[in-house]
Structure formats: C-alpha cells, structure tokens
Amino acid sequence: MMAEKPKLHYFNGRGRMESIRWLLAAAGVEFEEKFLKSAEDLDKLRTDGSLMFQQVPMVEIDGMKLVQTKAILNYIASKYNLYGKDIKERALIDMYIEGMADLKEMIIPLFKTPPDQKDAKVALIKERTTNRYFPAFEKVLKSHGQDYLVGNRLSRADIHLVELLYEVEELDPNIIANFPLLKALKTRISNLPTVKKFLQPGSQRKPPANMKTTEEVRKIFKF
Ligand SMILES: N[C@@H](CCC(=O)N[C@@H](CS)C(=O)NCC(=O)O)C(=O)O
C-alpha cells in the first residue's frame, strides 16, 4: 500500500508551519493541509488528544501525530536524506540552522507587532541580517567554494536558508546584493525542479500575513 500523504494541521498562513511546507516540497513530497479556521477547530484537536502540548503545528505522518516544529523538521530531514551523511555534517547543519532559527524567531512575530514598534523591529532584523547572519553564511560558502552549504550536496540547511533569503527580501530587496554567493545559492536552489514548482503561483507556499489573516489568527489563538 502506498504510504498516505503527510497531513499538516495549521492555520492558512506561514507561521511556524512554513518551513515544514518548504522542506516537504523541496524533498518532492506531496502533502495535504487541514486548515484551522476558528478557535473551535483548535479546541477539537486539543480535546481529541491530537496535540501533545495543545499547540500546532501538528503533522500526521507515518502513523504518528507529531508536534514541535523542530522535531517534525528533524524527522522529515532524516527521512529524506537532507540531514548530512555523518554526525559531523549533522553538527554543522544543526549549527547553521539554529542561527537561521534565531533570525526566523525575530521575523515570525512581526505580523502581530503593533504599528508603533514595527519599524524598530524591522530595523533590528535588517541590522542582524546584514552584519551577523548573511556574512556568516557567505563566509561558509566562500570557505569551501561548493554549491551547497554542507557536504557538497543539498541539505535542509540550504532549504531553510533560501526560505529565509526570500523572507528577508520581502523586508528589504537590497540586502542580498552585497552577498554574491548567497544570491547564487538562492538562484541555484530556486531552480531545483521541486523548489521551482513550490515557488510558482498556486503552490502550497503561503503569502505574507495581511490584516485579514492576522485577524483570523487572533481569533483562533485568542490573543
Ligand atoms: N515550540 C513549539 C511552539 C508552538 C507554538 O507556539 N504554537 C502556537 C501557534 S504558532 C500555538 O499553538 N499556540 C497556542 C498555545 O500555545 O496554546 C513549536 O515550535 O512547535
């Protein structure tokens, strides 16, 4: 019997699920999505015992109901061979993606930042991107001259980084100009057939939050 498609439970927006969508798509895995539309939808998952910590993202995959974004990503990356060939490559990948996660943690809450604080938050993100994170990854690529961040082949590190490159580009399209190797990586990864498909309109990739989606999310999570 063919394995069932993974089923993603989240609201219809990026949030913490978007990296999971990217990773599955890049791995060429088809998935289904069940969107939470209301607080009742979330309560239902909670009362039926599907959410270990009463939180989403939750992904049904291979007979499991996985929660915790990192655990979900680790499973997918391991299953589809995107997590290095040995423990040293994995250590590098972990180190790189934790840096990316730190930057991502600054970007995720932006959608619910009050307007009077938003400029300052965006300025800090740009500053950190320009002076800390992008130089670090540019340096990695420069140090070995290879096409991918780790082990001379595609890994989750490349996929998570390219997702971030697109997000930062939405905040400021000029930052990447000073990082030619990151720019080349973005083009290279974007042209992989699976990623190319995901980047096309009509895919399961989610647009940036807007006022309407933010209102929906507020209702679901009651904040
Ligand atoms: N560490 C968890 C955090 C999950 C999380 O904060 N989920 C939010 C939605 S993005 C949620 O379910 N909030 C409701 C709650 O905490 O009760 C993860 O990475 O999956």
UniProtKB/TrEMBL annotation:
GO biological process annotations for this chain's record? Answer: glutathione metabolic process; xenobiotic metabolic process
For the GST C-terminal domain, which residue ranges apply?
A: 86-209
GST N-terminal domain location is 4-84
- List the PROSITE patterns hit by this protein, alphabetically: GST_CTER, GST_NTER
Please indicate if the UniProt record lists Repeat as a keyword. Answer: no
Keyword annotations: Transferase
GO molecular function of the protein, one example?
glutathione transferase activity
Which InterPro entries would you find in this protein's record? Glutathione-S-Trfase_C-like, Glutathione-S-Trfase_C_sf, Glutathione_S-Trfase, Glutathione_S-Trfase_N, GST_alpha, GST_C, GST_superfamily, Thioredoxin-like_sf
Question: What CDD domains does the record point to?
Answer: GST_C_Alpha (cd03208), GST_N_Alpha (cd03077)
What Pfam families does the record point to? GST_C_3, GST_N
UniProt GO cellular component terms = cytosol; extracellular exosome
Which top EC class is given?
Answer: transferase
EC assignment: 2.5.1.18
Family, per entry? Belongs to the GST superfamily. Alpha family.
The protein's name in its UniProt record: glutathione transferase
Organism, scientific name: Carlito syrichta (Philippine tarsier)
